[in-house]
Amino acid sequence: FCGQVSNAVSSFVDSFVDFIVGGQILSKHAQSSANSFHPAAGAGGEARNHGGDSGMGIVTRIPAVERLVAIGDIHGDLAKTRESLRIAGVVDEDDRWIGGKTVVVQVGDVLDRGGQELKVLYLLERLKGEAQRHGGDLHIMNGNHEVMNIEGDFRYATKEALDEFSAWAQWYRRGQALKERCHGLGRQPDAFRNVRKSIPDGVRARYAALRPGGPISSRFLAHHPTILIVGSTVFAHGGILPSHLDYGLEKINAEVRDWIQGRKGRQAPGYLRGKDAVVWARQYSIPVESLCDCKLLDEVLTGISGASRMVVGHTIQAPFGINSACQNQVFRVDVGMSSGCANTAPEVLEIRHDTVVRVLS
């Protein structure tokens, strides 16, 4: 009997664990992503995800939309995330999507500095599904802190965040054990394979979950774009430089996905590392406008067909809030809202009909 209903059992277990860990029930598609984690020993200690579909493309460009909203760095602050979404007018008091066909782009850095990273990821993933069912969408991008954590750099992880991952590990293991008791599902993958037992529990859980091919990185982060273009607006966490254009924006998105899924080794690709990386660059985001490299920005925008502006995060703009530079060719949306950063009031950027831009607060 168990073998005949193995898929139903697996789905039920995943939903139960999702609700306990993230407080959300995710769509069947998101659950299938959870089931695609199949690690094998890999060079450098990564868990290679042979179950994911490397052919699943990351969207790099979508047409202009009637209403586009940009949200800056979140850094594990669930309350500020909810407040930002309400300011944007896309969720109600029960965190249900009411944004219709609005497209929301969160520019990365969901991880680090705050204690509710997983709950934020689960909330955004659930809202993405709801938005798509109403003709809208929600894109969560990868920032430098996602890259750091996938590489095992946890210097900005808080105690509360490590505790959250410890709790995830407990429920994840229980879920896997329940599946193994159902003979039709067979032996489940071990997310902790090749992870030293001597390191502290929270760090061990975080490493297992977020390393290349890990269950959280594969399920969530691997499907997030590093570069996104919506109509004439270009999004990147740090900024796009001519070298990134020369390499290829679609190629960057595809290779980052493959790296996160555990197909490209443990170390991030070069364009994700260093001061000129697409997730680390600050050439366009230093709050003093005279220090913004407008000539370089114009060169990049000219090199992207139809592009007229760039939206970046990464560099906290407090006390100025969301602002622009280079004659509105760049908008900087990291206001430092997380309680782990500047703890400022949230603001979001709204773009209507691909032309009219304003700040909502």
Walk me through this protein's architecture.
The protein has about 350 residues and is α/β, with parallel strands linked by helices. It has one domain (about 55-160, about 215-360): 4-Layer Sandwich (Purple Acid Phosphatase, chain A, domain 2). The protein has eleven helices and eleven strands. The strands form two sheets. Strands 1-5-6-7-9-8 form a six-stranded mixed beta sheet. Strands 4-3-2-10-11 form a five-stranded mixed beta sheet. Strand 8 (about 325) and strand 9 form a beta hairpin. Helix 1 packs across helix 2 and helix 1 runs antiparallel to helix 6 (about 160-180). The chain is globular. The termini are far apart. InterPro entries: Calcineurin-like_PHP, Metallo-depent_PP-like. Pfam families: Metallophos. One of its GO terms (molecular function) is phosphatase activity. It comes from Selaginella moellendorffii (Spikemoss). This is Calcineurin-like phosphoesterase domain-containing protein.
Q: What descriptive keywords fit this protein?
A:
361 residues, alpha/beta, Purple Acid Phosphatase, chain A, domain 2, 6-stranded mixed β-sheet, Calcineurin-like phosphoesterase domain-containing protein, phosphatase activity, Metallo-depent_PP-like
